Amino acid sequence: MKKGTFVLNPEQQAAVDHAVGPLLVVAGAGTGKTRVITERIKKLIQHDNLPPEKLLALTFTDKAAAEMLARLDTVMPLGYTEPWVDTFHSFCDRVLKLEGLEIGLNPSYKILSYSDQWVLVRRHLFDFELDYYRPLSNPTKAISALLKFVSRLQDENTSVEDLQSYVESYVGEPEEIKRWKELSSFYKKYTELKLQQSAMDFGDLIVWTIKLFKERNNILNRYKKQFTHVLVDEFQDTNYAQYELIKLLSPSAELEVEKRSLMVVGDDSQSIYKFRGAAVSNILDFRADYPNTTMLTLLTNYRSSQAILDPAYSLIQKNNPDTLEIKLNISKELVSSFGADFSGSIKPEIIELDTLESEAEFIVKKILLILGQEPSYSYKDFAILARANNHLDPFIMALRRHGLPYQLVGNRGLYDTDEVRNVIALLRILVDPYDAISLYRILNLQHFNISPDLISKILAEVKKERVDLWDKLVSTPVEEVQSFLKLFEDYRGRLASQTPSQLTYELVHAVGMIKRLTSEESLENELRLKNLDLFLEKIKKFELSHYADTREIATVVDLVNYIDLMLEAGDSPAQAEIQDYDTVQLMTTHASKGLEYPVVFMINLVSGRFPTRNRSDAIDLPDSLVKERLPSGDAHLQEERRLFYVGMTRAKKYLYLTYAKSYGGKRNTVPSGYLAETKIETTQLSSQDFEGAESQSTLFDKNSVYRKPKPKKNLNEKKLVLSYSKMESYLSCPFRYRYEHVLNVPTPSKYSLSFGNTIHNTLRDYHMKKLVSPSVKIEDVLQMYKANWDPTGYQSKEQREGYYKKGEDVLKKYFEVDILNSAKTFALEKNFYLSLDQDKTLNGRIDRIDRLDSEDGVNEVEIIDYKTGQSKSQKEVDENEQVTIYALAAKEVLKLVPKKLTLYFVEHNEKVSTTRTLDQLEAIKTKALAVFSKIQDNKFDPTPGHVCKLCPYSDICPHAQKVSY
């Protein structure tokens, strides 16, 4: 069978072939819903000749959107224009960036994360009229509760005016009336504050788009006309406001009349995001809102054996009558594609252990046993699911103790990793050398070679003499200690002259952190490098945000204060993940949604852990403001049961549900009530079953039943996407590519990149405004420049100010020439994905495409790429491979004729144009494919020489050559 070709079952085919009108696809776990969606998109574009830009697919997460695009890449022909595949938030962001001016929004708004919201409220806390929610003893106590309350209002599309109306009509005790007035005042002031700061939170993106569509009917009609076919994935996870958006874009009365379609795909049994505002009633109410709905139910499961599906169904039945089965009188009992009598079927087991330690040991032993029985299995085929992240810690310790590789998936806590804690401690010492806790942590770093005995002696003297640790170090005449002090005094002297990202980058190199982590290749070191890179990226984003808010350059003191606020806000960014290593996967059950594994362990299945105790919101929304229909049963227990069901249905062959009788408390645990609902038999194992277990040294000898496969990278198994800059990096030196794009070794900000991005973004904004308002003035352009200015990477204040003035001059000259230009701009910052093979894709973004006049109606265009560096000769432009790739993309993806390819050197206001032949386009394809193949084969041999002089990794690379000129 041809790769990318699927045989659909009748129900799947009916969903793919649906013509017009509303379609509800009830897709149970493992029934191939993503395949159905991608095949439907393929059919609409290829068979029905629908222009891709007329199709909108909305998903719930960035990961789901990326997966859908990746799957489309495998089923679509080489070279196609992407449809709009977005999350609800990214779709609304695109719309508001383009149309927000129509309702008075600044299209250059920034999007606030939760921690950004918390900090914004914290900084303006005393600007709010608060009393009840700002206790003197702990003024910041209620910030999280207030933000959660606002988020819930946004989920329900409840405006400031709606809440004010509710409060004005509220009848109750004086204290309650006062409380509600505070909440109404906070909501109003918080909304105003965000507008003043040109900022939006994620809820705003939805509610402002709804407001735009309702108040500007002409804009809504334009988008309705554009998106004739709308698809919504994970419909059960949408909230009320998101559903309102769908109904605006695809009104029921217009679908069949105007030959449009709306396809929603979901499963009420897998609705697990109530804490994010998801309204399971949306899927229950869809047929009432769209009376002419065609409904299809996908029941054939292609993942699990019937032995797993039956107990999962037994469990979820307990959510009746608040289910689609009862409401719509349908069956949702899944049938395994392997058949009921499948010989490879393994009965799921409930395992009761004595203690937490024996539960962890059981799982390790079972992993090793299955590896011995299943020759095709490796570590990545095993998943351990917990209700909460902290439940996984003992299992991590057990895996580590037995030497088995593991990885946390979707894990938070970037600031809690050792490597990031070390960097934060380094920064704290620079700001305050008398921070004894941070100082002690850094003294123990391997780089300083200070012996533990000496540190203990110094600490004892500090206590005895009652002096500060820093002062004691200053008076300690030991070479290692004095070297330590000299380093920090040196960097303290740079606090006023260097930006936080520059100083942090240099400091982590100075203490040997990067060199040590790159000297030995291992999963742990690679994760640590990626975590450091994530943290440095956060510092760079902070610098940009700080400048946008204050128009001042951030200092390390500002950064440390910001980190303190982030930690106080409970900010917990995700840690790095590496998808190309063979490891046991550990995650929360929520994080397992959409994944599948041959072997699944669900752990700690006791009352109080799974299901969790019901913790209602600190500030509840009144029922009159909750627009979703509430269930008749216990909503919390139903949600937890659905989550349990999701965990069970991740398993393909083996499913183990485990718990221990004791987790260290005085009382024995109570097994989760959900276990009995599965009707799986329980096996009791005592701690004696683990006594005398083989030690690590004998577990894997040649006579053992256990097998320990080697952890391996799987780069050649995954789809690879390369930009021209990545391809250029590999061609200059494959070992550099490894540092940059495999290990993600951090690099400092570069002023040339910051300046280039600023100019590019300003020219984009200028031409976008010019498309809708030809009367753009130079003052408008300079204001855009100010808003887009990126201050990072400059070596001094003088350099930064000099480049700012240079940018103004560049834009003034550009404007003088362009204002006379009659070119018809066709597209700005046009993204493309060019498939060279099923697992090899080139991507990029073309700065500008102008239409050229053509007598024969051919789509002839000029591709324009802005450059902020030195001008190039005609010969150099003729040989430029980047524009060759752009020409290839224009021809094969955008279906345009790239008659003219231009590099626009904006600093000199000089355009150098060229063309490309078909032979040149084929040659760049061949060259790119060779690069792809080498990367997928893990070929990263160094090519030392003159390239080392400009390489940012030359100080840590063992192959670097010192080159003199």
From TrEMBL:
<dbReference type="GO" id="GO:0005829">
    <property type="term" value="C:cytosol"/>
</dbReference>
<dbReference type="Pfam" id="PF13361">
    <property type="entry name" value="UvrD_C"/>
</dbReference>
<keyword id="KW-0234">DNA repair</keyword>
<dbReference type="Pfam" id="PF00580">
    <property type="entry name" value="UvrD-helicase"/>
</dbReference>
<keyword id="KW-0227">DNA damage</keyword>
<dbReference type="InterPro" id="IPR013986">
    <property type="entry name" value="DExx_box_DNA_helicase_dom_sf"/>
</dbReference>
<keyword id="KW-0413">Isomerase</keyword>
<dbReference type="InterPro" id="IPR027417">
    <property type="entry name" value="P-loop_NTPase"/>
</dbReference>
<dbReference type="InterPro" id="IPR014017">
    <property type="entry name" value="DNA_helicase_UvrD-like_C"/>
</dbReference>
<keyword id="KW-0547">Nucleotide-binding</keyword>
<feature type="binding site">
    <location>
        <begin position="27"/>
        <end position="34"/>
    </location>
    <ligand>
        <name>ATP</name>
    </ligand>
</feature>
<feature type="domain" description="UvrD-like helicase ATP-binding">
    <location>
        <begin position="6"/>
        <end position="305"/>
    </location>
</feature>
<dbReference type="GO" id="GO:0000725">
    <property type="term" value="P:recombinational repair"/>
</dbReference>
<dbReference type="InterPro" id="IPR038726">
    <property type="entry name" value="PDDEXK_AddAB-type"/>
</dbReference>
<dbReference type="Pfam" id="PF12705">
    <property type="entry name" value="PDDEXK_1"/>
</dbReference>
<keyword id="KW-0540">Nuclease</keyword>
<feature type="domain" description="UvrD-like helicase C-terminal">
    <location>
        <begin position="306"/>
        <end position="594"/>
    </location>
</feature>
<keyword id="KW-0378">Hydrolase</keyword>
<keyword id="KW-0238">DNA-binding</keyword>
<dbReference type="InterPro" id="IPR000212">
    <property type="entry name" value="DNA_helicase_UvrD/REP"/>
</dbReference>
<dbReference type="GO" id="GO:0004527">
    <property type="term" value="F:exonuclease activity"/>
</dbReference>
<dbReference type="InterPro" id="IPR011604">
    <property type="entry name" value="PDDEXK-like_dom_sf"/>
</dbReference>
<dbReference type="GO" id="GO:0003677">
    <property type="term" value="F:DNA binding"/>
</dbReference>
<dbReference type="GO" id="GO:0005524">
    <property type="term" value="F:ATP binding"/>
</dbReference>
<dbReference type="InterPro" id="IPR014016">
    <property type="entry name" value="UvrD-like_ATP-bd"/>
</dbReference>
<protein>
    <recommendedName>
        <fullName>DNA 3'-5' helicase</fullName>
        <ecNumber>5.6.2.4</ecNumber>
    </recommendedName>
</protein>
<dbReference type="GO" id="GO:0043138">
    <property type="term" value="F:3'-5' DNA helicase activity"/>
</dbReference>
<dbReference type="GO" id="GO:0033202">
    <property type="term" value="C:DNA helicase complex"/>
</dbReference>
<keyword id="KW-0347">Helicase</keyword>
<keyword id="KW-0067">ATP-binding</keyword>
<keyword id="KW-0269">Exonuclease</keyword>
<comment type="similarity">
    <text>Belongs to the helicase family. UvrD subfamily.</text>
</comment>
